[in-house]
Write a structure and sequence with these properties.
The complex is a heterodimer of chains A (about 400) and B (about 325).
Chain A (H helix, E strand, L loop, with lengths): L1 H50 L3 H6 L9 E8 L7 E3 L2 E7 L7 E6 L8 E2 L3 E3 L5 E4 L4 E6 L10 E8 L6 H8 L3 H32 L5 H10 L6 H18 L6 H25 L3 H9 L4 H12 L1 H17 L2 H6 L9 H11 L4 H21 L1 H11 L4
Chain B lengths: L1 H32 L8 H37 L13 H8 L1 H32 L5 H9 L6 H11 L12 H8 L13 H27 L3 H9 L4 H12 L1 H16 L3 H6 L9 H10 L5 H32 L1
Classes of the chains: A alpha+beta (about 400), B mainly alpha (about 325).
Chain lengths: ~400, ~325
């Protein structure tokens, strides 16, 4: 009985001391982790916040000021003589200088050298003794005893407080006029077949390697695994000239979608065959043999039995390949053109970095469009995603 | 937009359809020509059994030959030929490479990347994996640090170029790094063009991406250390730091090496980040980018490009073989 009490007693005497040091360690632990996590996510948050900011604000102030109010000096023109109305024997031009958006006028002036001449709400007497009143909201009223005759509106300079504004304007711009929308479709057009085709081809081959009898089976499989070590770079130069020659010979364009689908398929096959064969080979022999005895053909066993059983392996390779193709730049640069109907998101983004390097409203929103799909995959399929990346990490 | 989308959809369906049609079609034909006779006709059965594996294998074998086997042989051949691939020039391209300052600089930069990126990724990955195991919000922390793994290298380059943005010495800085430096009383800099150090600013991007990968693997490995081992050490009065260095690290050293080498391979082939950030300017050239450059420079020099590609492959192969061997062992032990 005494022995049994021992651990408990030890636990009781140990715990207060232990808890004390532990909680101190825990604070350091949490703080350290928090700092690391912040370091890791702040760059992405900066990009995300910036992509919704007004492009003028974005160019002038840091993204961390996005929630604070900014001051801006601008000018607008008042209405002209056609806008005037007669009211009680006086001539009045009224309107609003500000576009909707929540700006608030602080001070104003008719002289750009002295922007703080008058406070918002003041009434100012101009040289022609007309009276001009400008409210904080931008509403103005200009009253004169004689009819207005000017054809151009008078310039009013003001300092306005600009509340933080967030909008989808940047996204609207890049999706339409910058061609990022088209690139998004192009990327889908590359990625979906370049994911499905290798999986289909690899799973048939993997089944053959795992469950069919044929000469040189072992040699062929070892060769396929051997191809895993080949870096992509080794293939590009000969393939580029091969594509050009085929293009010239048949008089077709060298850079095409089927061309890049096949390239991605070829590069993805060794890993896919290797992983799927290992998985299919580990399925219980009895299941497949009893199906054989029942008279099922290999094709039936494969499509009705092995394929459904291999879903976990297929899913993790599928996610890996999808992300790999979606995020790829090198293969796209070699096998696809740069014209609007072929350029993919990564390639487009790289081009924008060169040509619009200072237009952060365009870069941030384009970048976000290009990473949103992988991020959705990441957050919804996290478990498969991790498995896919871990198994795919041996890819050459 | 809708028209383009339908166009894309049509192409996708067509591409996948051809593939499905091949497998279903060849199988259908096979069954027509050599029907299953329930053992009545042995010759037909034998034929079917002999042909079927090749129907399953042909697309894979053809694609592998065209996209990997042939190009590797051809690249090796081309490395001994001149720029157009017509005249045999012996080792001239190799000699050129080792006398070319640009190439040597790229090798040097690659070595720099090789030293720092795997090391830092592994260290950060380990630290996060250990720290996150001890707090209640560890899963969330791990998700957030893993997230960059989903982002393309080009996307990551945009994110970090924004962090490094420089607006002239007197202007308000909109890049986080310069703002932070000014907060500490330093001078804002154009980080990307800063000689030598700019390499490190590019490396940060890859470390940022790869740490999540290292962390996930380490996290799983750490969980496989028996709780009793750790508990016994604690009872013996070992501090958490001692436990980390004397128990955790030795226990998962195999996993650390696998992660290290995997990141090493990624580093050897690093391309997108350098292309997008500097295109090799300001002393940041690396091998993969130089090779890509020679593929198109002056109409494309297949000889010199091939030599550089070969250098990458020679560096990658031993590590890859070691890695696959390890992966295989792990699969078997599972």
């Amino acid at each position: 009985m005494e022995y049994r009490e021992l651990p408990e007693r030890r636990g009781v005497t140990m715990s207060p001391m232990k808890r004390k040091s532990f909680s101190f360690g825990r604070i350091i632990n949490s703080m350290g982790l928090l700092i690391l996590v912040l370091l890791w996510i702040l760059p992405t948050i900066g990009l995300f916040v910036s992509s919704f900011r007004d492009k003028d604000q974005l160019a002038l102030t840091g993204w961390w000021t996005a929630l604070s109010t900014a001051e801006r000096s601008e000018f607008r023109r008042t209405g002209i003589q056609e806008d005037q109305v007669e009211r009680n024997g006086k001539y009045v031009i009224a309107g609003n200088l500000l576009e909707p958006g929540g700006k608030k006028i602080q001070t104003f002036s008719t002289n750009y050298r002295n922007l703080t001449a008058h406070e918002a709400g003041d009434t100012v007497k101009f040289k022609d003794s007309s009276l001009f009143t400008l409210q904080e909201s931008g509403d103005y009223e200009w009253v004169s005893n004689v009819p207005f005759k000017h054809k151009r509106g008078k310039r009013i300079f003001y300092v306005a407080k600009v509340p933080p504004t967030f909008s989808l304007d940047n996204y609207r711009e890049v999706l339409s006029s910058e061609g990022v929308g088209q690139s998004f479709i192009n990327t889908l057009r590359v990625t979906i077949p370049a994911t499905v085709i290798p999986i289909m081809i690899a799973s048939f081959a993997a089944y053959a390697f795992a469950w069919m009898e044929f000469p040189w089976r072992r040699f062929l499989f070892v060769s396929v695994v051997g191809l895993l070590v080949v870096p992509l770079q080794m293939s590009l130069i000969p393939l580029l000239s091969m594509y050009n020659e085929i293009g010239n010979y048949f008089g077709v364009v060298a850079k095409s979608y089927p061309g890049i689908w096949l390239a991605h398929t070829g590069f993805g096959l060794p890993l896919a065959i290797y992983l799927l064969r290992n998985y299919m080979g580990s399925l219980p022999r009895e299941i497949i043999e009893s199906a054989r005895i029942d008279g099922a053909t290999h094709f039936q066993i494969f499509t009705r039995l092995v394929l459904p059983l291999s879903v976990p392996a297929l899913a993790s390779f599928c996610i890996f390949q999808f992300l790999w193709v979606w995020n790829d730049l090198l293969v796209a640069l070699v096998f696809l053109g740069k014209q609007d109907n072929q350029i993919v998101l990564t390639s487009k983004l790289r081009e924008l970095l060169g040509s619009r390097g200072d237009n952060w409203e365009i870069l941030t929103s384009s970048a976000f469009i290009s990473i949103i799909v992988p991020l959705i995959v990441f957050f919804t399929l996290q478990r498969y995603f991790v498995r896919g990346l871990v198994t795919g990490s041996v890819k050459a | 937009m809708l028209e383009q989308l339908l166009d894309a959809l049509y192409a996708v369906v067509l591409g996948i359809g051809v593939c499905v049609l091949y497998f279903a079609g060849t199988n259908f034909m096979l069954e027509q020509i050599f029907p299953d006779t329930d053992g009545f006709s042995h010759s037909k059965d034998r034929w079917r059994r002999a042909i079927q594996p090749w129907l399953f294998l042909t697309p894979a074998l053809v694609l592998l030959s065209v996209y990997l086997v042939y190009p590797v042989c051809e690249t090796i051949r081309l490395s001994f030929f001149n720029f157009g691939g017509f005249d045999f020039v012996g080792l001239k391209n190799y000699i050129w490479a080792f006398e070319n300052p640009e190439f040597l600089h790229a090798v040097l930069n690659n070595l720099l990347w090789l030293v720092f990126v795997p090391t830092l990724s592994v260290v950060f990955g380990l630290v996060v994996a250990v720290l996150a195991d001890k707090v209640s919000w560890g899963t969330l922390a791990k998700s957030l640090i893993f997230m960059p793994m989903a982002i393309s290298f080009v996307g990551a380059s945009v994110i970090w170029k924004f962090v490094y943005d420089f607006r002239g010495p007197d202007a308000d800085q909109i890049g986080s790094l310069n703002a932070f430096v000014m907060l500490l009383g330093g001078e804002p800099q154009a980080w990307i063009t800063l000689p030598f150090w700019n390499n490190f600013f590019l490396m940060v991007i890859l470390v940022w991406i790869q740490t999540g990968f290292a962390m996930v693997i380490f996290s799983a490995a750490l969980r496989s250390i028996p709780e009793e081992t750790l508990e016994a050490a604690r009872i013996d009065g070992a501090s958490e730091i001692q436990i980390f260095f004397k128990i955790m690290i030795p226990q998962i050293i195999g996993t650390i090496l696998v992660v290290w080498t995997t990141i090493t391979i990624i580093v050897l082939k690093i391309f997108d980040i350098v292309l997008a950030m500097t295109n090799g300017q300001w002393g940041t050239e690396v091998l993969a980018n130089l090779m890509f450059d020679w593929m198109f420079r002056g109409g494309g020099d297949s000889g010199r490009g091939s030599v550089i590609a070969l250098m990458i492959m020679i560096a990658v192969i031993p590590i890859m073989i070691w890695n696959i061997e390890n992966f295989r062992k792990e699969e078997e032990s599972r």
